[in-house]
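Re: the 245-residue chain
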Amino acid sequence: MTLNLKGKTALVTGGARGIGRAIAERLGAAGAAVAICALHAESVREGINQIRSRIGAGPGETGAKIAGRQADVSERDSVARLFEWLDGEFGGLDILVNNAGLGIFKDLGALEPNEWRAVVGTNLDGAYYCIHEALPRLQQQGGGWIVNIASLAGKNAFAGGAAYNASKFGLCGLSEAVMLDHRYEEVRVTTILPGSVSTEFGHGGGAEWKIAPEDVADAVAMVLSMPARTLISHVEMRPSKPPKK
């Protein structure tokens, strides 16, 4: 799949590891200038170094610009500062990938209010805050892309998933509404719903049968490569051969 993003700027939240880092690498390899954020500054530094080493975009080299900043997407002021930094560092935005996510898996009786708030705040409020900041910037650029990384947990509930299911169901609804609100402004909104992905996130960690983070990055690349006449609004991904129950 050929994807040329030279001259474009992308922000990938939660871009320091896992799915987010794979997406950042894919966009950078396609020529985009890429900004990432993560909850901890050290994670941002490590993520930038790993992305640069993978795509050959080290300091002083020609190639895509890669930079990052610490941010807590669940906090409105932190998101506002992130986008102010983005304006100064990159001068615009063409692609927002809302990938930052948190999973706390307990039955509702054991789920504490602060845990509920942390999951919904990161997975749903964070996407809203980022989209709210991104929209005027995308409109100023004449349009762009918003890609929200949801989950099959956004359509299939499971035991122990009360907070996570609620946040991802909500993200799917938010994505569709934003798509309908802004499609005539050349703002193209896509929701990607992966099943089990081989990362340290969630249950069970990595496994050979799971989707690779790079597969999700390829799905993002596919969405961004579509002609202007076609919008892929919803992508479901699942392992082809999960363990039989």
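The mean pLDDT is 94.
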